[in-house]
Amino acid sequence: MDRHHEMSVFLAVASELSLAAAARRLQISAPTVTRALASLENRLGVTLLQRSTRGVSLSPAGERFAHDCRRILQDVSDAEASACGLHAQPRGHLHLASPLLFGQQLLIPIVLDYLNDYPEVQVFARFMDRFPNLHEEGVDVAMLAGELADSSLFAVKVGDIRRIVCASPDYLAAQGTPQHPEELRSHAVVHSSADARLPEWRFREGATTLNIALRPRLSCATNQAAIAAACRHAGLTRCMNYQVHEQLAQGHLVQVLQAFEPAAVPVHLAYREGRKAAARVRSFVDFASQQLRQHPALR
């Protein structure tokens, strides 16, 4: 039994967490799945799957091996497609990753336009507020904010985002508009732990950095909740400007303390293969970067 087949069977089981479901997906018999897994585990000398009466789950070694299998099998598929000349036309599965609100508000409209132009591409979009490992998680293109820590990635800068403080017009009319970050201590503050673990907001005054420790009236686990509360006049909140772009444009929120904003944060479309990337990757990076650079929230 060849290694490619064993890895394909293991990856199907890892995705389905069921031997029977994996067999149906691959259109092979259940005993064939069992033999492939046994051969693979014997050859590697590790347990990849933990079996119980409730089904199967991945062991820690199995989790790591699943990431590697996904990447290796995709590389094999891309190599075969390149040899057949298929890279000339974008097609196949494209795996995207982005911060949650960035994906929902900025990226999804672009993805929909891209799919209209490239009907042979299927997109899986994962929105999460952490930096993905493109190599281990099989991500083709990721939207990354901040300096790139992985020097092996290729990246296209699409703009900058800013961390801002804002509140509803009604709240500011009732409580006054702060003119200096120190005044935040006398205001109602809505803090999001997704923005920062501790309620200490950083500002810039000339060449000096100001760290303002606050006692929030309301703390939320998500940026969406904090923004919604601010729109309902609960107080001042801090977030990235793109997260409230629509609320600012519609007048539901007003930015304050602009003169004390920290430095802008660069935003990149990052991908792995450079010039060797599949057509679906290259076409999406070109398509998305052009549209994102025109978005007012990234200027």
Structure keywords:
40% helix, D-Maltodextrin-Binding Protein, domain 2, 3 domains, 25% strand, 299 residues, 10 helices, single chain, 5-stranded mixed beta sheet, Arc Repressor Mutant, subunit A, alpha/beta, elongated
Describe the structure.
The chain is an alpha/beta fold and 299 residues long. It has three domains: 81 residues, Orthogonal Bundle (Arc Repressor Mutant, subunit A); 106 residues, D-Maltodextrin-Binding Protein, domain 2; 98 residues, D-Maltodextrin-Binding Protein, domain 2, CATH 3.40.190.290. It is 40% helix and 25% strand. The protein is built from ten helices and 14 strands. The strands form four sheets. It has a five-stranded mixed beta sheet with strand order 4-3-5-14-6, with helices on one face. A five-stranded mixed beta sheet has the order 11-8-12-7-13. The protein has a two-stranded antiparallel sheet with strand order 1-2. Helix 1 crosses helix 2 and helix 1 packs across helix 4. The termini are far apart. The mean pLDDT is 90. Keywords: DNA-binding, Transcription, Transcription regulation. GO terms for molecular function: DNA-binding transcription factor activity; sequence-specific DNA binding. Belongs to the LysR transcriptional regulatory family. This is LysR family transcriptional regulator. InterPro entries: LysR-type_TF_proteobact-type, LysR_HTH_N, LysR_subst-bd, WH-like_DNA-bd_sf, WH_DNA-bd_sf.
